Sequence to fold (1077 residues):
Amino acid sequence: MKKLKILYLIPLLLLGGILLASNYSNKKSDYISLKEKTIHPPKNKDNFDKMMDVLTHPRCMNCHPSDNIPKQGIESHPHYFGMEGGKNDQGFEATKCMTCHQTENNNYSGVPGAPHWGLAPQSMAWKGLTRQEIAAVMLNKETNGGKNHEEIIKHLTEDDLVLWAWNPGVNAAGIKREKPPVSQEEFKEVVEAWFADGAIIPEK
Amino acid sequence: MKIAFSINNKDVSVDILDGNTPLLWVIRDILDLKGTKFGCGKAACGACTLHVNDVAVRSCSYAVKFAEGKNITTIEGLGNAENPHPVQQAWIEEVVPQCGYCQPGFIMATAALLKENNKPTDEDIDKNIINICRCATYYRMRKAIHRAAELTRETKI
Amino acid sequence: MSKNISRRKFLVRGGLGTLGVLAIGTYVLRNPIRRQIIDFADSFIAPYSGTGTEPNLWFEITKNNTIVLHSPKVEMGQGTFTGLAQIAADELDINIDQIEVIAASTASGVVDSLGTGGSLSVASLWQPLREMAATMREMIKIEAAKKLQIPLANLSTKNGIVSSNNQQISYVDAIKEVTEWKIPDTPKLKDLKDYKLVGKPIARIDLKTKVFGNSIFGMDAEMENMLHAAIIRPEHIGATFKSANYQKAEKMPGIVKVVQIDDWVGIIAETYAQALAAKMEVDVEWNIPKIWTEEDIRTLISVGNGSEMVVQKEGNLLEKDDKNILEIEFKSPLGAHAQMEPNGAVASFKDGKITVILSTQVIGITQNQVAKAFAIDKDNVNIIPTYLGGGFGRRLNTSHAIQAVQLSKEIGRPVKYFFTRKEEFQNDMFRPPTHHIMKGKLNSDGLIENLEHHFASGNVAIDSTLMPGIAHTILGADFGAIRGGSIHYSAIKNIRSIQWHKTLPFATSWWRSLGLLANTFAIESFVDELALQSNKNPVTLRLAQIKDNEEGVRLKNVIEKAAKESKYSDEVVNGRAMGFACSTDTGTPCAQVAEVSIVNSEITVHKITCVMDCGIAVNPDQVKAQCEGAMIMAMSASMYEKMYIEDGQLQPTIFGPYDMALLKHTPKEINIHLLQGVDKPLPVGEPPLGPIAAAIGNAVRRITGQRLTEMPFKLS
Fold:
């Protein structure tokens, strides 16, 4: 548990001056040993790539569109029947995401489901962005819904909707949906490690 | 497992082995309300649309366990000949149905729309009413939806 | 049938027959809020009278003095019950709210041996039903005369009451104690102008039951002590059963029995959801002799392949090396019925008697097939039709009735089963793909000198349950596939219509309007192209190519009316163009004008003007409803729909991927004008499917220069 906390705090300290309020570092500075602040550039790049392999996978990208239109399937076709995110990313006034999508997958219909199923907010539109740009949008409090690094890590590794990517259920034909190329456990590790290494966006 | 909910303002409790059973089949086969139709079982056609706590839901893709404690309305509870819902009234005025099979789903979807928006534009209708009608009664449906909106507004005043 | 009706004694049902129907009726309509049929249980029913060998039945009079018409035709949305009610009520001298219509079952009444289809219900019953109703009215009057002791000639009928100057008696009171009917010769029918209901746009009689969710479809039918079943069928074209492992499924909750019959596995359970859950746990291996491809199908269905039949021949064939020939190739894909109510049946096989409740367009054929399959007398098979959740020709084949009976036989209890949507898509009796080569030439006046339609199609009528196998040999052509395939420009000197036929490795069959959809698309798109080539207004050119015989004049009238009402113009205004097309189907000419523009790279149809001459429109509002639905269905088929073959399977298997017209695709304006060129009702439900595809294509041609030649349409 202690290790985990430290991992969270490293990026907070590193970027403290730029992004984060200084009160975080003040309070928790005694947890940090200088040794652990060392950055490993090649490892950082590797972690970043793995993290982005997941984030750019259709399981994630399909609900981070840039046109407010959810995508479906591994080939990311526009959602059938003209469904859109609507004004609040939850579908149209009456025909909402939750008209069909519940809080868990439905094996009878093949309709996927998870808590608060819906589109990512427009500010988190990833489609069409490079991996570097996606990371920048994700780290930016202006676009990420005011999340600090700790909260971003939490979202990426604990949010039910994000974790759905590894429990995507079956499609309408009863065939299992493809999971992201990195396992949930490894994803958690690389995300934490990347943030621990300073959440540095490597050059292309 | 026992699941208790209210359906058409009546409290019911069903005893069912598998809580993942689609609500549609519980309503049709156990509660014997046959107005909610099976069209595809994949939440694609909308024939099974009903309301769960006033929200349009496609019941073929809704596990009955989620119904616990909820208020469910089906076509049978929306209105009747003596007291038709404005959407049903408008459907009658415009003589919408042909084979009639998909109509309860459309009527429920429309009732949900008018609850949120009692003056839908054509575009609002196009976006929200995406059920399928093979007889293609769509032309009259659009007229009926506008008429139902009018009736809804009159009722509220 | 029509001429002999007046000599035929018809029977008014009583006692036993009634109970038989009601016993089943109450299962079908178990819920007390269902239709008023329950009222029949305690209603007064006129006593049985007749020879006893023909349990034919048309009318029942209830104690509330309403009349129930047992329709030989089913109601699948086409409004037939309403049309028949209007026709019967007018001759019976009752009001529309005094008549109710239910579909006759094989045990309870007259069913049409040809089924319900071909848009013929109202047209074919127009004469016999009026005669039946008029005779019934006279029979009631005869009884009233006896009761009131007033000469028959002094009696008149109105609103279900027989009256003289100073006395009156309701129909039901007049016939209450009748044990033996006197059946007079058919009386003179009323003049058309004296009909109060025929010709009026009255509301559908099934309107309210459908709006309040009370109507009973095949899917809603039940029998007492019934079990549910799900079925696993081969997914690959031509696959047969090899082996199955259902040990796990058999142990699942609610599973009563898993059976393997022919090329399918049936899972019988206490509830449908249980059967469905167990179905996911059954592994079946299939023999797959061949992986069919899309290419295979296209090769099979191509002009020049298969058997050839000359459908139409006038004058000369075009010379091969004539440089002035215009030639265009057209194609249409495999299409699904996609009716909203899946097929299925509730069946009971007990003590040598079979009862099946289902949505069927062919009650009599279903009865024969079931009787044959189980080698029992057909009198022991009762087929009870319900409302149909769409027909469109799909329910002309009901082999699933036999499967349901097999399941009931296996388990000794009634069983209900129905197709999943995937089964529905993979086991449809599809609209076959077609291939057309149109050839033509203009003369020096810019008129059409030669017009040839060479076309290929899979089975429509051939090998279908409606047609005996020998029909093909006798008829030569597939008369379903040739619908709309003849050239209706009778003034053209040199005409050919030649059909090529081949049977596909999966069932293709009747799909609303049969060949009309694709054939009209090819012919009318091509004629439009010739009009452009000759620099003539397409309306003018069409009118110039039609002879002035009766059929020709009626076609010209709808063309002229459509041009006038739509203010047809060849000009493209603000990106919006009109397209014109027409066809004659089963004697009903129809012309349509589509107003189209391209919005966000998509073809958008803003307005359709439709003019149709269907003779007497028994219910003009429902005739218009048929036009609206038929045109949008044809739009859907030509703009969006397509089945294809992938990995040896028919795809797709769900709505969405099977793209169909939705409300948003529907034109905002549809204007329909009905002409009455003849004094009888003609088919209505299919003719309007003809012109729309070409009308849209012709408009697109004017906007973009692109000639659309393949359904579903794609802009280049």
Remarks:
- The domain at 2-77 of chain B is CATH 3.10.20.30 (Ubiquitin-like (UB roll)).
